[in-house]
TrEMBL record:
<dbReference type="GO" id="GO:0005829">
    <property type="term" value="C:cytosol"/>
</dbReference>
<comment type="similarity">
    <text>Belongs to the tetrahydrofolate dehydrogenase/cyclohydrolase family.</text>
</comment>
<dbReference type="InterPro" id="IPR046346">
    <property type="entry name" value="Aminoacid_DH-like_N_sf"/>
</dbReference>
<dbReference type="GO" id="GO:0006164">
    <property type="term" value="P:purine nucleotide biosynthetic process"/>
</dbReference>
<keyword id="KW-0521">NADP</keyword>
<feature type="domain" description="Tetrahydrofolate dehydrogenase/cyclohydrolase catalytic">
    <location>
        <begin position="10"/>
        <end position="125"/>
    </location>
</feature>
<keyword id="KW-0511">Multifunctional enzyme</keyword>
<dbReference type="GO" id="GO:0035999">
    <property type="term" value="P:tetrahydrofolate interconversion"/>
</dbReference>
<dbReference type="GO" id="GO:0000105">
    <property type="term" value="P:L-histidine biosynthetic process"/>
</dbReference>
<comment type="subunit">
    <text>Homodimer.</text>
</comment>
<dbReference type="InterPro" id="IPR020631">
    <property type="entry name" value="THF_DH/CycHdrlase_NAD-bd_dom"/>
</dbReference>
<keyword id="KW-0028">Amino-acid biosynthesis</keyword>
<dbReference type="InterPro" id="IPR020630">
    <property type="entry name" value="THF_DH/CycHdrlase_cat_dom"/>
</dbReference>
<keyword id="KW-0368">Histidine biosynthesis</keyword>
<keyword id="KW-0378">Hydrolase</keyword>
<feature type="binding site">
    <location>
        <begin position="170"/>
        <end position="172"/>
    </location>
    <ligand>
        <name>NADP(+)</name>
    </ligand>
</feature>
<feature type="domain" description="Tetrahydrofolate dehydrogenase/cyclohydrolase NAD(P)-binding">
    <location>
        <begin position="144"/>
        <end position="282"/>
    </location>
</feature>
Amino acid sequence: MSAVQTARLMDGTGLAGRIIEEAAAKAAEIARSTGSSPCLATVLVGEDPASVTYVRMKQARCAKAGIRSRHIGLPATTTTAELIDTLAGLSADPDVHGILLQHPCGPHIDERAAFEAIAPEKDVDGVTMHSFAAMSFALQGFVSCTPGGIMRLLKAYDVDLAGKHAVVVGRSAILGKPAGMLLLAENATVTYCHSRTADLSAFVREADVVVAAVGRPRLIRGEDIKPGAVVIDAGYNPGNVGDVDFDTASTRARLITPVPGGVGPMTIAVLLAQTVDAAANQLGRSTPVSEGHSVHDGEQRAE
Ligand code: NAP
């Protein structure tokens, strides 16, 4: 007899929908009271088909939520200096409230230098060193969107992180590393694992909360999940497969994110929410800032 799924699913699609509705309502209020609606600038270097699709998707979601978008498509031959000029121009433009540099930008671009040309108050994708420092010091600021989405999911499902052992598998600048910082800010005891970690299974077996952010299909085996653990799968691999072996993990976990429909939709929801907050801040509106990692805003519960 095969084992039965005991884990409750964490519904990222539903929660993301509510966050976007709330962002749309705030955007409408900003437009009404200031005569100017929030504007997200998207910058894309080259024409990588996946990146083009991502940017179009983000623009379409913005439009639905009443957020304007301004797209700057640059040729693949763009230099780092030219990209920095573009981003600095958008940073100084009062009609642009948030900036998203779609990455990867190509091997000839110094991506870190480009990100740093984004003004912190417009860094709605949470990619600058300023934003990382804010996440690390638990200060108000914009969060990296996927880790921010993960934290909102945990909060929506009332996962108390204080004193829990959170194991983050992956340490990229946009996902694993900031996710660990945000978990730490909520008083979890955080372990980072990565490609050089010896005996990954041993760490996962000790985890009360597992965050998989690797990009390797089903790397995290169900048999390593501690019974009753919370499993967040940020991985997205070809064929809609996550980094966690869902079928086996869901027989042991208490809560688990599906792929798709878990972390994925949360990323764009956080991007839109932060764009509206950036506009509110810049236009001098007192619209409350969306939930940062250290601010509890009474967000609607998932249950
Ligand atoms: P990345 O930059 O390639 O980083 C992958 C991380 O995984 C690295 O830190 C790497 O370690 C680690 N790693 C690789 N092989 C490993 C192994 N065998 N054991 C343990 N750790 C290993 O990827 P990313 O941008 O963080 O993305 C990770 C996954 O999340 C991908 O599937 C991506 O598609 C997905 N993602 C989803 C969203 C979303 O919106 N849902 C957003 C972003 C990313 P080293 O540092 O040692 O190389």
